[in-house]
Amino acid sequence: MKPISVKLGFILMAVGLAVLASTEVWGEDWVFYGGSAQGEEKKLILRDWSRLNKLKPVPKAEAKTFHYYDQDSVASNSPFPGGSVRVWEKAVLQREIESYEEAREKIKREEETRLKRKINVLDYAWLFPLAVNRASKETETLYDIDCDSREFFILEVNNYDKEGKRMTREASAAMDLWFPLQPDTLMGLLYQEVCKQ
Fold first, then answer.
1. Which of 22, 27, 121, 150 pairs with 13 at a CA distance of 20 to 30 A?
2. CB atoms within 10 A of CB 150
3. CA 181 from centroid of its chain's CA atoms
C-alpha cells in the first residue's frame, strides 16, 4: 500500500495538468501598419513618449524602424463605434544592435578613456540612459486612444534589447496628459487602424 503522501502527490499533479491543459493561451498578433525614418536615439533621455505623433510614415523599403500594433490587445470601452480604445504598439529598429550588457560595457570603456579615470557607482546614473538608448531594439507602448476627440494618452512604455530582455518600464504618472492627434503621422495611421474596428 502506497503512503498517503504519494497518492496525494499524484492527485495534485493530475489536477495541475488538467488546469494547464484547459487554460486559454493568449498570444500576440503583431500587425505591421507603417515605417518611419527614426533611428537610434542619441540624447540623454530614455524615449520621447509622443514620438509617433511627430513621425511621418515612409515606405517600408526606406524605413529604419518598423511599427506594429498588437491586434489581440485592441480593447474598446464600448461595443459601439467611437469611444476609447487601448492598444499595444511596437517599434522595431531594422539594424543590428548591441545587447544592453554589451552597450553598457562599451560606453563604460569610452567614458573611462574620455574622463581618464575609472567609472564609479555614481556615474552609472547617467550612463544607464545612454546604454538603454544604444541597446534598444524594440519599444512597446500602451496607448489609450479616444476615437471621438482624436486624442491619445500614453499609459506605459517598455524598452527591450536584441535578446528580448526588458531594460526599462515607464508608467505614466500624469493621468490627464492627453495629446491631440496629428494627421499624416504614424499616430494618425495607428488611429485609423484601431478606431475602425
1. 27
2. 15
3. 20
Cα 55-59-63 angle, rounded to 5 deg? 65
- pLDDT digit string, tens, across residues 156-177: 999 999 999 999 998 887 767 8
Residue with cell 504598439: 89
| Partner residues linked to 169 by β-bridges | 158
Q: Which domains does the chain have, with CATH numbers?
A: 27-97+136-195 (2.40.128)
Q: Are 15 and 7 in contact (CB under 8 A)?
A: no
The CB density around residue 85, as the number of other CB atoms within 10 Å, is: 23
Residue type, 124: Y
> What's this model's pTM, rounded to 2 decimal places?
0.76
Q: What are phi and psi of 148, to 5 degrees?
A: -80, -50
Return the C-alpha cell found at 133.
538608448
pLDDT digits 0-9 by tens, 103-156: 999 999 999 999 999 999 888 888 888 898 889 899 999 999 999 999 999 999
3-state secondary structure of 97: coil
- Residue 80's SS3 state is coil
Positive or negative torsion for Cα 61, 157, 160, 129: positive
Task: Fill in the DSSP letter of residue 78.
Answer: -
Query: For residues 37 and 50, what is the distance between their CA atoms, to the nearest angstrom?
Result: 15
